[in-house]
Amino acid sequence: MPELTFRKLSSGDIDLIEENFQSLEGAGESQWFGFWDTQKLRTRLSHDQFIGGNDGALAICLGGADHRQS
């Protein structure tokens, strides 16, 4: 069974989100909800890397895979 690991989000993760969810081609017609401001994600990333006192987010990596670019 592949191992799951957790890590803080990176700018490469935001790039992947933009690539997959900012266009109809990336998300597909059933999953595309329109354009949204990904700059808010980059601002949050630079502020606290999505680890806050009231909320947070981590990336989940399957089998040691780490696709972040930076």
User: What's the arrangement of strands in the largest beta sheet?
Assistant: 1-2
- Rg, please? 13 Å
Count of strand segments? 2
> Low-confidence stretches at least 5 residues in length (pLDDT < 50)?
none
Going by helix content, strand content and strand pairing, the class is alpha+beta
Q: Please give the alpha-carbon distance between the first and last residues.
A: 28 Å
What portion of residues belong to β-strands? 5-15%
Q: Count of helices?
A: 3
Order of helices and strands: EHHHE
Average residue-wise pLDDT: 84
Give the proportion of residues in helices: 25-40%
| Quaternary class | single chain
Q: Main beta sheet: strand number and arrangement?
A: 2 strands, antiparallel
Tell the overall outline: flat
Primary descriptors:
70 residues; alpha+beta; two-stranded antiparallel ribbon; 36% helix; 11% strand; flat
Describe what you observe in this structure.
- Helix content is 36%, strand content 11%.
- It has 70 residues and is an alpha+beta fold.
- The chain has a two-stranded antiparallel sheet with strand order 1-2.
- The longest helix has 11 residues, at 11-21.
